[in-house]
Amino acid sequence: ELFLRPDLVACTFSGSVAISVAVSAPTRFLVLNALDLSVNRTSIRFQALEPTEVVFFKDDGVLVLGFAKQLPLGEGLLKMDFNGILNDQMRGFYRSKYQYKGKERNMAVTQFESVDARRCFPCWDEPAFKAKFKLTLEVPSELVALSNMPVGNATFAGPIKTVRYLESPPMSTYLVAIVVGLFEYVEGMTTKGTRVRVYTQIGKSNQGKFALDVGVKSLNLYKDYFDTPFPLPKLDMVAIPDFAAGAMENYGLVTYREVALLFDDKSSSASSRQSVAITVAHELAHQWFGNLVTMEWWTHLWLNEGFATWVSHLAVDSFFPQWNIWTQFLDSTTTALRLDSLEASHPIEVEIHHASEVDQIFDAISYDKGASVIRMLQSYLGAERFQKAMASYMKKYAFSNAKTEDLWAVLEKETGEPVKDLMTTWTKQKGYPVINAKIKGDDIEIEQAQFLLDGSSGSGMWIVPITSGCGAYDTQKKFLLKLKRDKMVIGSQCGDRKKGGNFWTKLNINGTGFYRVKYDDELAAALQNALETKKLSLMDKIGTVDDLYALSIARQQTFASLLRLLYGYRGEADYSVLSHINTVTTSIAKVSADATPALAGDIKQLLIKILLSPAEKLGWDPKKGESHLDVMLRPLLLTALVQLGHGKTINEGVRRFNIFTRDRGTSLLPPDTRKAAYLAVMQNVSSSNRSGYDALRKIYKESAEGEERLQVLGILSSCRDKGIVLESLNLIFTSEVRNQDAYILLRGIQPEAREISWNWLKENWELISKTFAGSLITDFVETIVPLFTSNEKAAEISKFFATRTKPGFERTLKQSLENVRISARWAEGIRSEPGLAQTVRELLAKP
Ligand code: BES
Ligand code: ZN
């Protein structure tokens, strides 16, 4: 039983807990978690006993109660009173600020994952200690007060009300939640009668309708998928103005940052519609995977996050089949492949010894590699068998906890396949293999070796589900590679090798496997031919370019061969494929500016040539009835062309922007293309010619909070002029930018401004590390450090941080520095590559 009384004006709270504890072995101590709380010592009782020692271990967030005599065996009640501060750090019990009728107000919000429930009340703050929670809040009568469970009863005493909530089912502490503030809501109902609400600030509830619709559909779908009902009587989703993560799956009370939940028909973009859908589907998946069945320990965090990421795509694909979301999912896979080819990566199952280590594993390995290996397993076992096994896993461990191996055991029992042996190679060691494929007569010889971007080769070995397509997609082959080397027999169905032309084979069909493929010259040429003659699926187009891109960075393939392959993608019209092409072209533009300055201009022209024709087809103006994917593709291409310095696109962006500044309602600049125009304006801005910049700052000030504002924020630092970049970066320390949004400004920084940004980071490091807690501080390292491409700089940065690291961002720093060294090595290779200039000229000259 937990009682809390927040004071929203003084930003403090007081409270009391009564915890039922079973003493199962003789002891004189109770050891639990509490942090930054002042516990009233005289209030502490276990049954009638008072502790004789009360000791806090601040670094560990631990409270030790010592009693004079051994505690009586059996169940007893532990009680205490405490006080705390509603902090500004967006963790524990904190305050968020909002405007109401022109006045600033505070709301009280909780964010407990991973280890911050202990900042709100003394408890056993580990996922395996599930308990039933019965909450009572004492708050101002006019405010909305929400918690995990519905209100049981409320009593009013003038300006103050006491709200008692129903008792929850057994749940982990990190999922407890409270929100107190002014809100309005929209409401819906699932087919089984669960009440669903979306709470927003006053006046914004219309913007909650899209999320409500996705939320109701998600609950319906997951109930069927897991064959298990949603166990709570209600589900609330709330938009919070200050929020560290994107969203948090608290049981029955899911919290979101505003842009992750709200969608406005007039001012939101198609990509924000999609990310709202994915986020809602992700958090609601956790209501089963995470909340009902919870990881035993943080080592198994990936079970939560990897599975929610994977199944959110399954849900969104069923609601919006036209979005092609599984093709877009390859973004997750390639992001994970990228991170996991660093020496400083980590296994999916990572040992956690201390609370301070938990936050940093919420990364692309847990989320994206986790989701990718689940997709690999599902495609190996088959969708139906997989779903049946997931449903029985859910039932077996409902209201309890599970480890990775428990999941494998259920899958193995249901399917009879060697799931544990197979999957252990993927979850217990870091990295992944590159499969070398060589054609020898009628066979393809394959060999696995760990792939690392620094060009070295690790010693890892995996059990690899190999798939191959051969001449056509209806002649796929599957087999499990268990050894270092093996071979596959190919028949005539791959096409005729002798005659050339129609022969091709591709491994890892549709990128379901978490590995890369390196082909010998003959297979590579056949694959490029298949690409250019439009034989490959969208997913395979993505896999083909991403593999060669990575192999080129690792210097296992030439830069020229990457350019030649890329050239084969000109005329491509698909959003997902072009989104990957854009990642590659951006990276190429950056590295070539450092590696071959003399050739960089020509390389940019080549990249423009590849992207121009789809961009011209789409133009700036939306067309009636065009697809969601085309709506997202337009800004992607326009932005890419602006970044590459394409004059015509920049001029058109500026022209439209000038009209927009006079008429905000103009149809020439709808929400989807605004950012591209803003970016175009920033290309011409400098300290002596700052009218465009001032106009953008004005738009920022005048825009409503939410996506509209963030679109401007994202480009303010995208400029070559040092003074302007500094001015923008310094906004981070003002009240104009919420701490939660600083990273959006940081992401806009261009390589040309890296030196000035790094100096700024150094000069302000003390302030930054004081102001930004937890994951927010890693953003500063992650966005600025990898802009560099020299070993000297890596050494300098490493030296600066030698005396300044914290457990929270050590790994991120290591990874960022490794990326710098990898870029340096890549640039070195490009510099000394013979015949590169000729290749570039040849491709540029092609009609
Ligand atoms: N459980 C996380 C929220 C979280 C993240 C808590 C990091 C503590 C530390 C939540 O389910 C989540 O994954 N949110 C994502 C959004 C999702 C769509 C990938 C996020 O916040 O980015
Ligand atoms: Zn999650």
Characterise this structure.
The protein is of the alpha+beta class. Strand 16 (195-200), helix 1 and strand 17 form a beta-alpha-beta unit. The N and C termini lie far apart (75 Å). The relative contact order is 0.06. The protein binds ligand BES and zinc ion (ZN). The site of zinc ion has 4 residues, from helix 3 and helix 4. The site of ligand BES has 14 residues, from strand 18 and helix 3.
Task: Provide the descriptors you would attach to this structure in a database record.
single chain; 847 residues; alpha+beta; Immunoglobulin-like; seven-stranded mixed sheet; five-stranded mixed sheet; 42% helix; globular; binds ligand BES; binds zinc ion
Short account of what is shown:
The chain has 26 helices and 28 strands. The chain has 847 residues and is α+β, with helices and mostly antiparallel strands. It starts with a strand and ends with a helix.
Q: Output the structural class.
A: alpha+beta
Radius of gyration (CA) equals 28 Å
What characteristic shape results from the CA principal axes? Answer: globular
The CATH level-2 architecture of the domain at 1-180 is identified as Sandwich
The first-level CATH class name of the domain at 1-180: Mainly Beta
